[in-house]
Amino acid sequence: MAEKRKYTEAFRNYESGSYSRTDYKQVNSTFANDDELLREHLHEHWESLSEYGEMKSPNMKSLINQVQRTISPQKPSATRRMLTYYQRIAAVLLIPITLFSIYWFTATTPQATDAMATIVSPQGARTSFVLPDGSTGWLNSGSEISYPVNFHQNREVKLVGEAFFHVKQQNGEKFKVRTPGITVQVLGTQFNVSAYEANEKISVVLQEGSVQILDQHEQASYLMKPDERFEYNRKENRAVISHVEAADYTRWTEGLLQFRGESLEVVMSKLARWYNVDIEIRDEQLKAYNFKATFKDEQLDEILRMIALTTPMQYRVEERKSNLNSLYVKKKIIIEQK
User: Which domain holds residue 273?
Assistant: First the structure.
């Protein structure tokens, strides 16, 4: 009986248009779960309507005004009778229809918890970021991270490209960085993750703290220590662990372009992202040559000239042409054997 009184009061408040959030939840819940109580109240509501009484609900009045505009005013007595008939029908139908609309909207609208935020670093740029929990980092050229809007409840980041993270520790809550091949799980630490879509290999370099590497099935595969590099080959499903100077792998956050004996193919791939150009190597033997150097604030032409001094390569820049939309295509550089 108490439950019925509670619902009746909530229903009347809602029908009058002066309802609270609690009233709304009570009416919506009854509509969804208690058909018998809803039918009983609608019946009482019907019986309580006066045949010629004034409609007090603003929602009712709005609907009745629409009905009135469709009725011819030439026969007052017939109009009055028809209006009264429509008033009684509208009084009963308006609330269920409104409640169904609310139910349909809440049932089909995506929840806010599914919303994602994305930070993008375009080609040729490096972008610093701050996450909602206070964790900070950098995105390298042509990279992006996505994370849920309700980040404090779910500290997970999806990475495409390369990023350096300085994760803030929060009461033992785990922080995860997901890539297409592995997941990096941490509490509070500094580390670098490189996971470009075009590369078969994903690398994690730990600078400070500790991180847990998880496989695609969320199973722990390796616990990293500082100055270790975990490199996973997605194609071969194989990992290699090596000892490195972690700082060498994070100097890009300081604007330094560093090559540590990588192949010319890898070097040109990094240069293409860093300077937002297309680079094509037209000789397979050249791709295997290694190059070691560090650059800061150098022009691309100067870097290519220095590489050409130590390897049997030469380069040329193709003339830029406009496309159908009168936009000039990206600068393209051809690398060939001398």
Answer: 255-337
